[in-house]
Amino acid sequence: MNIYSSVDMEGITGLVDRQFVTPGERFYERGQQLMTDEVNHVAEAAFAFGCKRFVVNDSHGKMNNLLVERLLAEIELVSGEVKPYSMVQGLDDSFDGAFFIGYHSRASMPGVMSHTMIFGVRSMWLDGHEIGEMGLNAYLAGYYGVPVLLVAGDDQAAKEAEALIPNVTTAIVKTAQSRSSALCLTPAKSKALLQTKTKEALMKSGKVEPLIANKQPILHIEFANYGQAEWAALMPGAELETGTTVKFAAKDVKEAYQAMLVMTELAMQTTFC
């Protein structure tokens, strides 16, 4: 069995605000270590179950957060940017399942550090279904016939995953108290939980179906202000539909994914004076 893992940072236990997930901030190095530890815990359980290949894609910020020298020797790491498929770079049909570790809930929803790609996104839809990073990543996995077997993060990320992916296994390593506080498991407790849930996810892998998008999906992104939407709509094929919502009709979910990346990058060019 080959497993692909996309690893974000906001959903790791103990990480509750930007000081833990932003390079140069007070607790960032602690955040890196805790993130690396959680990856190791999951990979260790997967290998013990019989997994032959475990690929990890660093999916937070500049995507160079994981401490490669502290990863299990058998893990393969995709690190750095720019990546054509960002949080799911390297995923293809050679994998039997995908794990999303350290994930958070989508923009405009409760949850620790909830957002969707950039803070300028209010909401995002694929064919009318509201989704966040987790959803779009799961649909791209589905394009390759790969089911998302495990989602680890806070309670709100788990809630989102369970509504999106029938029979997915979730591991709740912290419970949101607000957007920047949580009731957290200790690393020892999170290790035990993650390893139990990894085994559970692999045992029930046959019960989870890939999340399949329409063949020619329609992507909508609602931005926080008009300037961001205006920038995003400059991308060929995109159109400013209503208010601050931009529409893109894609030929497939891969194109929709890359359109999202380009539109959000363009939107970040907006200034406020």
From TrEMBL:
Annotated Zn(2+) 2 binding sites: D8, H60, H104, E133
Keywords, ordered alphabetically: Aminopeptidase, Hydrolase, Metal-binding, Protease, Zinc
Highest taxon of the lineage: Bacteria
Keyword Protease: yes
Entries under InterPro entries matching the protein: DppA_N, Peptidase_M55, Peptidase_M55_sf
Chain sites annotated for binding Zn(2+) 1: D8, E10
Catalytic center residues: H115
MF term (GO), any: aminopeptidase activity
Protein name: Aminopeptidase
Organism: Shouchella clausii
